[in-house]
Write a structure and sequence with these properties.
626 residues; alpha/beta; Rossmann fold; six-stranded mixed β-sheet; 18 strands; 19% strand
């Protein structure tokens, strides 16, 4: 199977969103699509899913979408429930229709074979059983049971009808079914949004073992590092491909831009030198021929373009609290939180400068704890007390959904009526609301823009205690990094809820984990939490189950032969890649290439790709050998 877009252009309302898309998906591609908010990542997924079409441009460039085979493409926006009267369990099991039908066929064939004992019936049963085994028939039930549990659904909820679930829960069920249906190309748009850490880790393990292709749009850097091996960045409407995970992409992008800039500057210097010679000698009869040859030399050059300017715009707010406050900031003792029943009991002591992250499963009380502290939800029992002179800056998840017909400027001035319009615009400008942007109505702002507006209002107060509930939802990676930098340098105290593990690791120095009614405190933060998770009893996952079940239905000799074949194939691939690398290195040393900037750039790029592929092959060989 292969899916390929060449020179793809997509327009929305007559405006080009994607200007030059080159994109390729193969049988087992593990691809991330990254870029700033609004760059067209979701538009690209919709193009692959068939919801958008490429536009034929008036140019000589060939523009097309080519597909070999008939791949099944799975996209969440296309998932619907056929029958709302089905239970959650019935809906999830429907993702395994082929296996369930085959299970019935195996059962019928077994009964027939037992009755007749005929050779043909035995052969038919054996063939069906082999197919059933290869499709995962002996572990699929454990797979979906683990998935349902990790996505936060209880045993009782498995028997609830679909129409009884909320909109958010229905989306999670549809997402779960999409994953388990295993399409040939799985398209995922921000899949970790609103998943807790346990569910995100389960999803990572699932995608690591996914045998088919997937394309994921995500701003979760740790998630991308753990699951993808190719990154496409969309910048200025164009795609740029990088081999490796997100961290490798960030490194390569810097290297390629530096290399391109160096080559561009070297070529411009050479062009300047040649043009200077031409200007000096073009009107001298004895040197005219030489001058003409220099002009032709310039004309024959493949011009290297200067690197396009990066979109590095992001918000900033370097502020110190109006009042640094006292040492004791918050004391929480046996605080029971919840609504009609207690969700958790919390004990916590926070000192000035502490930065405590809150993690845990959905529905266990993380946001309820925050709301209790700020007075939005009454406590059930216990007590909490803020220190004197504590000034709270509170960010709620719902602020991203805030709606108003006021302009951004008017909305801000309602919060700070004593400011002049100039002062308000200066404050908003730091959060990327400049020029005409301040006259947009709040209603038309994106989720990320509304978060920026809310943060701008909070930071203008210069509080000494920030309480933030999922502040990075709707943010792109550049915005997350900007907020990280601000919070790292914040001199006050911070308490925040987040599902973004990278963000938690970067910011928090202590951790509060909500887990099944219990709340554990980790004085040394995320690293201490990870260490404890490693020593805890491991949860059986698909990766652990699958080989175990297979072992019961294959012979040791068959397994050995299969492994030896895989090792041999891997060794052959390594040998070919090493030969290819040697050829590239020889080309790099040739004199005619040393002054050819374009050729050098292509060779360096190819060298990096082959080295990356060789490294992955060596890791695969080591894994097989172990």
């Amino acid at each position: 199977m292969q899916y390929k877009i060449q020179n793809g252009v997509v327009e929305l309302s007559g405006e080009p969103i994607l200007k030059k898309i080159d994109f390729e998906i193969n049988d087992s591609s593990k691809i991330a699509v990254v870029g700033r908010n609004g760059c067209g990542k979701t538009t690209l997924l919709k193009l692959i899913a068939g919801e958008h079409k490429i536009v034929k441009m008036d140019s000589d460039q060939n523009s097309f979408v080519a597909v070999s085979g008939k791949p099944i493409i799975g996209f969440l926006s296309q998932m619907t429930f056929e029958d709302d009267n089905r239970t959650l369990l019935e809906e999830v099991r429907s993702a395994y229709k082929d296996i369930l039908d085959l299970k019935t066929a195996v059962s019928n064939a077994q009964a027939k074979m037992s009755q007749t004992g005929a050779e043909n019936d035995i052969k038919e049963y054996t063939n069906l059983l082999d197919t059933f085994t290869n499709l995962g028939g002996f572990y699929f039930e454990k797979e979906y049971e683990a998935a349902i549990k990790k996505f936060g659904f209880s045993e009782a909820e498995k028997q609830r009808k679909l129409y009884e679930f909320s909109g958010g829960q229905r989306t999670k069920i549809a997402f779960l079914k999409l994953l388990l249906s295993k399409p040939d190309i799985l398209l995922l748009d921000e899949p970790t949004n609103h998943l807790d850490i346990d569910a995100t880790v389960w999803l990572e393990d699932y995608l690591k073992n996914y045998k088919k292709a997937f394309v994921v749009v995500s701003h979760d850097r740790m998630f991308l590092d753990n699951v993808v091996n190719t990154v496409y960045e969309i910048e200025n409407g164009k795609t740029h491909k990088y081999v490796g995970n997100y961290t490798r992409f960030a490194e390569l992008k810097k290297e390629y831009r530096a290399q391109q800039l160096k080559e561009y500057e070297a070529q411009q210097k050479e062009i300047g030198r040649l043009e200077d010679l031409v200007d000096r000698f073009r009107y001298k009869a004895t040197k005219a021929t030489m001058a003409q040859s220099k002009l032709k030399q310039i004309e024959k050059m493949d011009i290297i373009e200067a690197p396009e300017a990066e979109d590095l715009k992001t918000f900033h707010a370097d502020f110190t609290p109006l009042d640094i406050g006292v040492k004791d900031v918050l004391s929480v003792k046996d605080l029971q939180i919840g609504y009609d029943r207690a969700l958790s009991t919390v004990n916590l002591e926070m000192k000035r400068g502490d930065k405590v992250g809150i993690i845990g499963g959905n529905g266990l009380g993380k946001s309820t704890f925050i709301k209790t502290l700020v007075g939005e939800v009454p406590k059930l029992s216990g007590e909490f007390k803020f220190g004197p002179r504590v000034q709270i800056g509170y960010f709620d998840q719902q602020m991203a959904q805030y709606s108003s017909s006021d302009t951004v400027l008017d909305d801000f001035l309602k919060e700070y009526p004593t400011l002049t319009p100039f002062e308000a615009r200066c404050a908003l400008g730091a959060f990327l609301f400049s020029g005409e942007e301040v006259f947009k109505t709040v209603d038309v702002l994106s989720g990320g823009e509304r978060v920026r507006l809310a943060l701008c209002k909070i930071f203008k107060k210069r509080p000494n205690f920030l309480i933030l509930d999922e502040p990075t939802n709707h943010m792109d990676i550049a915005s997350k990094e900007a907020l990280e930098e601000m919070l790292k340098n914040f001199e006050g105290t911070l308490l925040f809820v987040s599902h973004d593990r990278y963000f938690i690791k970067q910011i928090s120095n202590s951790l509060l984990n909500f887990s099944g009614g219990e709340v554990e405190f980790y004085r040394f933060g995320y690293e201490e939490y990870l260490e404890k998770q490693k020593t805890a009893k491991p949860v059986v996952s698909e990766a652990a189950i699958k080989p175990k079940e297979k072992k019961n239905y294959t012979t040791p000799l068959k397994e050995k032969a299969k492994k030896e074949k895989a090792i041999k194939k891997c060794e052959e691939k390594i040998s070919k890649l090493e030969e290819e690398l040697a050829l590239i290195e020889n080309e790099l040393l040739k004199e005619e290439n040393l002054s050819d900037y374009v050729k050098l750039g292509e060779l360096n790029l190819k060298q990096a790709e082959v080295e990356e592929e060789l490294l992955l092959s060596m890791e695969e060989w080591e894994s097989l050998f172990e």
